[in-house]
Design brief:
single chain, alpha+beta, Rieske Iron-sulfur Protein, 3 domains, 4-stranded antiparallel beta sheet, Rieske_2Fe-2S_sf
Length: about 350
C-alpha cells in the first residue's frame, strides 16, 4: 500500500477545516512553501557616481537652481514695489499680479527642481530595506536614530557640499520674504491705518438705514425679536470706498423686551425702548456675525462659532473671540427715525497691535 509523506499534514489540515463551508468534505489541503526572496536587482551606478566631471556639473546645477530661487524671491519683492497697484486701474493690477507671480513661481520651482536634482544625481544611490521595529524610546533606539541622521548626512553630502548647503539656506530664507512684503498691501497705503480702523462712518445724527437699500428705519417699525442688518445713511449711494466703509460700519439692530436688557449704568441711554445696535464684525477674525437666536438673545459667528449675549452687552459666552462686540449708541430724531448718538467708542473687528481700547 502506497504511503504519502504529506498524509499527516493533509489530514490535519482537512480536520481543521472540517467545519469550513468553503471546503468540500474529504478535500486534502496542501501547505505551500513560502515564496523565495528575490533580493535586490543588480545595481546600476549613475553617471555621477563614475564620472567626477559629471558630479561637479550636477553640483553646479543644483547650486545655480538655488540661486535662481533667491533671484525669484528678490524679483517678487522688487515687482511689488516698482509696479504698485493704482486705484481704479485694472492694468496696474494685472501687471502687478503677473510680475509678482512670475517671481514667486521662479522661487518655488527653482528650489523644488534643485532639491529633486540633488536627490537623483548626488545623494547616495543604494538600495535599503526599512525593517519594521517596535516603537519605543529606549537608549538603543535613540542611538539608532542618531546614527540614521549621521548616515543621512553622509549619504546626502549635506555637511560636505558647502556650495549646495549655503545656496539652499539662502533660497529657503529668501523664499518667504515676498509673502511678508505682500502683507503690507492689506493696509491702506496713503493714510494712517490706525486712524482708519478706529473710526467708521457713524457720527452723531447719522440715520440707521436698511442694508442694502439705504431706506431709513423708524423705531416703530422694528418688531420685537427681530434682527435687522443696518448701514449708515449715505453708504448705499457711495461709488468709491463703499466696501471698505461697509466692512467697518455694518451693524445688527435687534429689539428685546426692555426688561431683558442688563445694561450698565453708563450705557442706559445707548439703547432705545429695547432696541440695541451692535457691530456685525466679529472680534475674533472679522467674520460677519449674522445668526440671531431670538429666544436666547445670542448672536453666533458662523466662521468659528463665537457666541455673544445681546442681553448683556454682547459679552462673549463661547468660542475664540476675546472681547464683546462694540455697541453703537442710538436714539431717535424728531421724526421718529433711529439715529446714532456717536461713532463706536472702541475699534470694531479683530484686535490689532496699535488698538488702544
Amino acid at each position: 500500500m502506497a504511503h504519502d509523506d504529506h498524509s499527516g499534514t493533509d489530514i490535519a489540515a482537512a480536520s481543521s477545516d472540517a467545519h469550513d463551508p468553503l471546503v468540500s468534505p474529504g478535500t486534502a489541503l496542501v501547505v505551500a512553501d513560502p515564496f523565495e526572496n528575490p533580493g535586490f536587482p543588480p545595481h546600476r551606478p549613475r553617471v555621477t557616481d563614475t564620472n567626477p566631471q559629471r558630479e561637479k556639473r550636477a553640483q553646479r546645477t543644483v547650486t545655480v537652481l538655488f540661486y535662481l530661487s533667491i533671484l525669484g524671491s528678490v524679483w517678487a519683492i522688487a515687482a511689488y514695489m516698482l509696479f504698485p497697484i493704482e486705484t481704479n486701474d485694472m492694468a496696474s493690477v494685472r501687471t502687478n499680479n503677473l510680475l509678482i507671480g512670475l517671481g514667486a513661481t521662479l522661487a518655488l520651482l527653482a528650489v523644488g527642481f534643485g532639491v529633486v536634482h540633488w536627490g537623483k544625481a548626488l545623494m547616495a544611490d543604494v538600495e535599503l530595506v526599512d525593517e519594521r521595529h517596535a516603537v519605543g524610546g529606549t537608549e538603543k533606539s535613540r542611538v539608532a536614530a542618531a546614527q540614521i541622521f549621521a548616515d543621512a548626512n553622509r549619504e546626502s553630502g549635506f555637511s560636505r557640499r558647502t556650495m549646495i548647503r549655503r545656496s539652499l539656506f539662502g533660497a529657503l530664507i529668501a523664499f518667504p520674504l515676498p509673502a511678508v512684503v505682500l502683507f503690507r498691501g492689506f493696509a491702506p497705503q496713503d493714510k494712517d491705518p490706525v486712524h482708519l480702523l478706529n473710526h467708521t462712518m457713524w457720527k452723531k445724527g447719522t440715520r440707521l438705514t436698511l442694508d442694502p437699500s439705504g431706506a431709513p428705519i423708524k423705531a416703530a417699525d422694528v418688531t420685537l425679536g427681530s434682527a435687522v442688518h443696518v448701514i449708515p445713511e449715505g453708504l448705499a449711494e457711495m461709488t468709491e470706498g463703499k466696501l471698505e466703509e461697509k466692512a467697518k460700519a455694518a451693524v445688527l439692530l435687534m429689539r428685546l423686551e426692555p426688561s431683558a436688557l442688563n445694561e450698565l449704568p453708563e450705557r442706559k441711554d445707548w439703547s432705545y425702548s429695547g432696541i440695541v445696535a451692535y457691530s456685525k464684525i466679529c472680534t475674533h477674525v472679522g467674520c460677519p456675525v449674522a445668526l440671531y437666536e431670538q429666544q436666547t438673545h445670542h448672536l453666533l459667528c458662523p466662521c468659528h462659532q463665537s457666541q455673544f449675549d445681546v442681553a448683556n452687552h454682547c459679552e462673549v459666552i463661547f468660542g475664540p473671540a476675546k472681547r464683546p462686540l462694540p455697541q453703537l449708541p442710538i436714539t431717535v430724531d424728531d421724526e421718529g427715525y433711529l439715529v446714532a448718538q456717536s461713532d463706536f467708542h472702541e475699534p470694531v473687528g479683530p484686535s490689532f497691535w496699535e488698538r488702544s481700547a
